[in-house]
Amino acid sequence: MCGIVGASAQRNVTGILIEGLKRLEYRGYDSAGLSVLDKNNDIQIRKNAGKVSNLVDNLKESPAKGTLGIAHTRWATHGIPSEVNAHPHSSSDVAVVHNGIIENHDELRSELTDLGYKFVSETDTEVVAHLVHHYLDNQLDSSDSLKQAVQKTIDRLEGAYALGVISARAPGVLI
Ligand code: GLU
């Protein structure tokens, strides 16, 4: 059973995200990861198979800092436990963590592949990242928001799930 943490603050949130993941470790998981929006407004992702301590080691070697972030411990349902299948999943400037199952991921994957999106993981989750990106790119009105893109995405998803989403196009917005 996976866990999701999100944080937005006026200071670096990496430590908050890691502490949240540690508190969720009792739920059981096979991999862990996080994403922060850094000071250059770039999405940074660090993820590993195995324990949260592996993620902490990864961050020591390759620090990631930002005031907005999402984090995840994964219990695999679609795709083996591995670094590439670990969350967050991304589509350019969008990062997503996901708990649960997207039942119609096969048909969404075909649709998104036809639109030119490239998939790197075996997860059902990756369709969510690409759908949010697609709806951000195709908003009719430039005042439309990340929230609206996520709402349009959710309209397409079948299953029982929870999501955490951030985007470089919406600094400070945590969904
Ligand atoms: N279905 C997703 C996966 O296999 C999420 C699993 C979870 O809830 O951790 O990556």
Structural class estimated from helices and strands = alpha+beta
Helix-strand string: EHEEHEEEHHHE
Query: Which parts are unreliable, with pLDDT below 50 for 5 consecutive residues or more?
Result: none
Q: Which small-molecule ligands are present, each listed once?
A: glutamic acid
Please give the share of residues in helix: 25-40%
The largest pleated sheet is described as: 4 strands, antiparallel
Round the mean pLDDT to the nearest integer and report it.
96
- Give Rg in angstroms: 15 Å
End-to-end Cα distance, whole Å, is 21 Å
Q: What percentage of the residues does DSSP assign to strands (E)?
A: 25-35%
Number of helices: 5
| Widest sheet: strand ordering | 1-4-2-3
DSSP, total strands: 7
Categorize the overall geometry: globular
